[in-house]
Design a protein that fits this description.
503 residues, mainly alpha, 22 helices, globular
């Protein structure tokens, strides 16, 4: 998704040659004078519009021409990205970042359903793997291309101006696409759509779909937080080590992007391969693979967060394997949706999954991590104030230590001091800038939340395994009845619902 991951990768407009090699997230924060919380809000604004408009495109995608809906959406995505790169006010900049999400919602909601109508069985799994591996690969590619383009032009804005060129190419390719009939690959193309109310009712009552969506929400939470804060966190950890003073955020972004792209190229097809390999013998293999991937990724990423300020090479290796395990999920979750939901409801189901996974996943995770980081910074500043007050450089006796401790408590408790004053007392230079070490520690504690979320996601996928066989058989039964012409459109919902009860 280069439309928003490029923000983590491009370079500064600063005239200083060294600072011009910084990554764009830091430069945007500097340019618009915003903290980590508002920096994370840029990602959140994009994903909020993305998830809010996904249900609309899901409804349209089950009823109207899918290729033209996608073409219009990608054109909107490209044009708003280009226009947003010219904004100088943060309010307008974040507004256009939000508009980009509308265009992307059309493509992400509808494209998998077209694949499901062109292919079936193992071939469908392979094609979905090819489609979904573009997410982590595109993310990594966005870091690299955006970084180099913006560095060449000496402005972070130029990274956003590369995207529209790719968008126009995509519109042309979509226009050449043949839009298959819904359910064509399964021989169920005579199945007619039911009302939107019935579609939502059936989807919500589908435990395999709901539980796998909850698990995927945890994947989205982690992926969003890492894509947004990962390069900055690694950079802060590295520069805290002696001898790394010349490392720039742009260098780290390039390496992080390369890792993200490589793990996508390997991880997504690997997940699809494992699914095809074990599904025939173990029908519940799909949710188990997703669960193992998430639970295995949690300690690997946590270890990387601990090691980044100690051993950079080991940290990068742990990030590689942590993201590799995380990427096992993408194609498998998409395949689960397609075989536990009937063909005429798949665009709606895709939209519903996008809404839930992004609303509780990557829409909030960058902002959530940013808010935690800012809160921890305030605690670290107050801690520094207390230490500096109790243990001043001229401390000469235990009686003076007791007196200083009393004075320190009074200072913090009475606090008519502004945050700026507190920053100065804590030793923060130039009007409240935190040291790299303090920024690193705050982000480290905040990012530990992602490992906890991964474990929760693994539990959701384990619960999915309890229902997946029953829900898959219900869909196969409904498709078989439609092939025989025994399931009129108005009886489709009742047929599936009664099957669920009887099983």
């Amino acid at each position: 998704m280069p439309s928003f991951t490029q923000i983590g990768s491009v370079v500064s407009e600063s005239p200083n040659p060294k600072s011009s090699r910084s990554g764009v997230l830091t430069d945007i924060q500097t340019y618009f004078v915003i903290g980590d919380d508002e920096g994370g809000l840029l990602q959140t604004a994009f994903v909020l519009s993305y998830m809010i408009f996904a249900p609309l495109f899901g409804y349209l995608g089950d009823r109207y021409s899918r290729k033209w809906i996608m073409a219009l959406g990608v054109f909107l995505w490209s044009s708003t990205t280009f226009i947003g790169s010219f904004m100088n006010h943060f309010g307008w900049f974040i507004t256009f970042r939000a508009l980009v999400g509308i265009g992307e919602a059309s493509y992400s909601t509808i494209a998998p359903t077209i694949i499901s109508d062109l292919f079936v069985g193992d071939m469908r799994s392979k094609m979905l793997a090819m489609f979904y591996f573009a997410i982590p690969v595109g993310s990594g590619f966005g870091y690299i291309v955006g970084s180099e383009t913006a560095h060449f032009f000496q402005s972070w804005r130029w990274a956003l101006r590369v995207t529209p060129i790719l968008g126009i190419i995509a519109v042309v390719l979509i226009a050449m696409l043949r839009d298959p009939e819904r359910g064509q690959s399964e021989g169920s193309h005579h199945m007619e759509a039911t009302s939107y109310r019935e579609d939502i009712k059936d989807i919500v009552r589908n435990p395999s779909f709901m539980l796998s969506t909850a698990g995927f929400t945890c994947v989205a939470f982690v992926a969003g937080a890492l894509a947004w804060w990962g390069p900055k966190f690694i950079y802060l950890g590295l520069v805290s080590q002696p001898g790394n003073e010349d490392i720039t955020l742009n260098d780290v972004s390039f390496k992080f992007g390369a890792i993200t792209m490589t793990t996508g190229i390997i991880g997504v097809p690997l997940g699809s391969y494992l699914s095809q390999r074990f599904n025939h013998k173990y029908p519940r293999a799909d949710p188990y693979i997703c669960a193992v991937g998430l639970i295995l990724s949690a300690p690997l990423l946590a270890g990387a967060m601990l090691m980044v300020s100690v051993n950079a090479t080991l940290a990068y290796v742990l990030v590689f394997f942590g993201e590799l395990a995380l990427n096992l999920n993408w194609a498998i979750v998409a395949d689960i949706l397609l075989y536990v939901v009937v063909p005429t409801r798949r665009s709606t189901a895709e939209a519903f999954q996008i809404l839930i996974s992004h609303a509780f996943g990557d829409a909030g995770s960058p902002y959530f991590v940013g808010v935690i980081s800012e809160a921890i910074k305030r605690l670290l500043r107050l801690s520094a104030i207390g230490v500096a007050t109790v243990f001043p450089a001229g401390l000469s006796s235990y009686s003076q230590l007791a007196e200083n401790a009393t004075d320190s408590s009074s200072l913090v408790a009475s606090s008519s001091l502004s945050p700026l004053d507190l920053n100065h007392l804590a030793g923060a230079p130039d009007g409240g800038e935190d040291t790299p070490a303090m920024q690193f520690r705050a982000l480290q504690y905040a990012l530990f939340s992602t490992s906890f979320v991964e474990v929760i996601g693994g539990v959701f996928f384990l619960l999915t395994a309890m229902y997946i066989l029953r829900d898959r058989q219900n869909v196969e039964r409904a498709v078989a009845e439609s092939q025989q012409g025994t399931t009129p459109a108005h009886r489709l919902e009742n047929s599936i619902s009664s099957s669920s009860v009887s099983d």
